[in-house]
Amino acid sequence: MDVSIVIPVYNEEESIPELSEWIEKVCTEARYKFEIIFVDDGSSDSSWKIISTLSAQKKFIKGLRFRRNYGKAAALYTGFAEATGETVITMDSDLQDSPDEIPELVRMIREDGFDLVSGWKKKRYDPFVKRFTSKIYNGTARFFSGIKLHDFNCGLKAYRNDVVKSIEVFGEMHRYIPILAKEAGFRKIGEKVVEHRARKYGVTKYGLDRFMKGYLDLLTIGFITRFGKSPMHLFGALGTMMFIIGFVMAGYLGVRKIIFVNQQLRAPLVTESPYFYIALTVMIIGTILFLTGFLAELVNRNSTIRNNYLIKDKVNI
Fold first, then answer.
1. With pLDDT > 90 as the criterion, what percentage of the chain qualifies?
2. Neighbour-count burial of 261, counting CB atoms closer than 10 A to its CB (0-12 exposed, 13-18 middle, 19+ buried)
3. pLDDT tens figures, 249-279
4. How far is 71 from 306, CA to CA, in rounded Å?
5. Taking residues 211-231, what's their average pLDDT?
6. Closest of 130, 38, 45, 99 to residue 315, by C-alpha
7. Closest by Cα among 182, 249, 181, 176 to 213
8. Taking Cα atoms as reference points, which of 292, 109, 132 lies closest to residue 211?
9. Beta carbons within 8 Å of 26's beta carbon, 6+ residues apart
10. Do 279 and 247 form a contact (C-beta atoms < 8 A)?
């Protein structure tokens, strides 16, 4: 299989037939052996019915359906698991991504040797709020990750197959797949300016809640990529440092008490000093952090696969 196109779907019944026909035209002209994998993320409209009908007519169209809405990351992860193409393309199902970009993306993977190529919607037709928050997200992500991409969250991307098989996308981490790929050892990450088309059908799924979720996800991915496999390195180090600081403060109070007693001077009560309570609090916090790291290590060693989603139906899988 040359190319697998993975497409998450959520209430996009109007665009699915047109999108699949467009992809078929482009891939046929490029003479690819291809498959289209639609992942219905719990749509409440007739999206699944349309996918099933198309799949019955054309064997290169495959479909998966979730029992409820799990989110784009879950849809991508499940689609990645089923993809068999040497190159895997992802795109949104709302026709804002152009399938005409596929041949060049495939060429960059095959000939230029990129592990991952991310689209850059240089000219966008999104509302101002979405464009503004996107710039903040992307600037912050570039700063923390060191990956020089303008649009981390662009739905139109191309991957080598072993990239998608080596990363686990969960929660809402689809925004930061390039970071996950880099941490998995795939460091040749490129970018291509792609066409962003105005929405033709339906309404945007964007909401202001994504502003906060985006930054929380960035903090999460930063923690996971650095300390996900060894949380003790963070919590243990912080806990040990805080315990030592508290112990030194308490030790100072104890030594001062001994000096006063040896010199037969009236020694102030240790509990009269605010430093005693500060030292006690710092040592308790240090102990809690250390135990948190220890427990996190135990959980990490015995964790099960997080993307254990219940798929309701399959076609051509």
1. 51
2. exposed
3. 989 888 888 888 888 777 777 778 888 899 9
4. 14
5. 69
6. 38
7. 176
8. 132
9. 99, 100, 102, 103
10. yes
